[in-house]
Automatic annotation (TrEMBL):
Residues 1-17 form the signal peptide. Gene3D superfamilies: Bacterial extracellular solute-binding protein, family 7 (3.40.190.170). It comes from the Bacteria. Pfam families: DctP (PF03480). Coiled coil: none annotated. PROSITE patterns: PROKAR_LIPOPROTEIN. This is Transporter. Keywords: Signal.
Amino acid sequence: MKMKVFFILLLSFMVLISGCGKNLTANGKKEAINHPVELKLGTKMPDESVEGKAFNLFADLVKEKSNGDIVVDVYAAELLGKGKTQIDNMLMGTQDMYVEGATYFDDFDSRVQASSIPFLFRDFEHFQHYNTGELGLEIHDQMISKGVRFLNTERNFVRGPYRVLLSKKPIKSVEDLKGLKIRSFESEFYSQAYESVGANPTVVAWTETYLAMKQNLVDAVTSPISLVWSMKFTEVTPYMTIIDEYPQDIVIAISEDKFSELSKEHQDLLIEAANEAGVEAVKLLEKEVEEHLKLMKEEHGIEIFEIDREEWMEAFSDFHEQVEESGVFPKGYLEKIKMIE
């Protein structure tokens, strides 16, 4: 009799334990919360970079908001592979998250390439309205249908925070671009854009750009201002022009399969943490850029110019028409972007 009572009590205890620490997910499934949900996040940026610090801040915010129920493990400096490899990892389920520019996801929707077309967007606010408005949400819906979701819905995680052109001769107007040997990355749009205004773009790997300029293989390079000091570009180019040719931001992407496994509460806090991390990242970035600019002026005597943005946008408008005719984007798509207030 005592043994029977013992087994009944033991069975009741096991049932009680199995029912504890679970709650319904957004899809009605059960999610165990009696141990942390671990999310593997990959990035190409090192931990000590501003972006690396922001990604670790995101991880801290998630842990804090979830009371330790969710732990984001950050794998920096391409520990999980190159960009496209990490995106494939997400789809296969071997990693959960990847953070980079949205153009890395152009295999899911070619329309994301619009973000790197020079002088299409007036400023970052225009770009942000595009991403959070009807056109941007259409792209995001397409992403989700193919297995990837962007968590930072406010699209406020700025990269840069603006772009500059480093050169061996002063560049003050579009006319100064004619004949300029400018470094290009592997983008047909980008090279064609500068060819359309008379420059001579040359594809050079980012890590080889400093040497290429030192050896006079190229005369100029465009870059986010935040990377100029670390790349030592002002050692070999005495002039800097603030062109901000296109705005850049970072997306914190998560596998849709993993996201759908989480409770609604946990989904919401991930989105909240991603948007908060974007705000803090901009503060970190602006502070570092200010320090770097001071060093560039003091140690290298860099001379800085600004452009007449309307002049440059007008000069590149012929290229925008060429893009419209290429068939990469729906008819009238770039014009719709330009009309966004």
